[in-house]
Design a protein that fits this description.
The chain is α+β, with helices and mostly antiparallel strands. The protein has one domain. It has helices at 8-16, 36-45, 82-86, 90-93, 100-103, and strands at 22-27, 49-52, 58-63, 69-70, 73-74. A 3-stranded antiparallel β-sheet has the order 1-3-2, covered by helices on one side. It has a two-stranded antiparallel ribbon with strand order 4-5. The radius of gyration is 16 Å and the shape is elongated. The chain starts with 7 loop residues before the first helix and ends with a helix.
Length: 105
């Protein structure tokens, strides 16, 4: 069933779907009993893309399609969970999230 688009934000969401295809997780070496370098190596060896921030926080990302994502888009978009409705990919994806275009207008 094709979703009933309510506004520009929803149209941008459905044309991007970056957060439906990639998972971003933030972590910090203070949570582990090993040096940051070892933590980075551990996650890279498992296929994560790893970005280390200045304050030693680590951003882990990996490709993972949502179970509801189909070639036609989200098959539960009109009934998607509240977490999906409220999530802003701008914090995780910056300008790669199409919602960032709304701020520029």
């Amino acid at each position: 069933m094709k979703p009933q688009l309510q506004n520009e934000k929803e149209r941008l969401c459905l044309s991007c779907m970056k957060c439906c295809r990639e998972v971003i997780v933030y972590t910090h070496p203070v949570l582990y009993s090993c040096p940051a370098e070892m933590l980075v190596e551990f996650y890279q060896a498992r296929g994560f893309s790893v970005t280390r921030l200045k304050e030693d926080a680590i951003i882990l990302s990996f490709k993972h399609d949502c179970q509801h994502l189909t070639p036609a888009g989200c098959d539960i978009y009109d009934q998607r969970p509240e977490a999906c409705r409220d999530y802003s990919g701008i914090e995780d994806f910056g300008d790669e999230c199409l919602w960032s275009q709304l701020k520029k207008k």
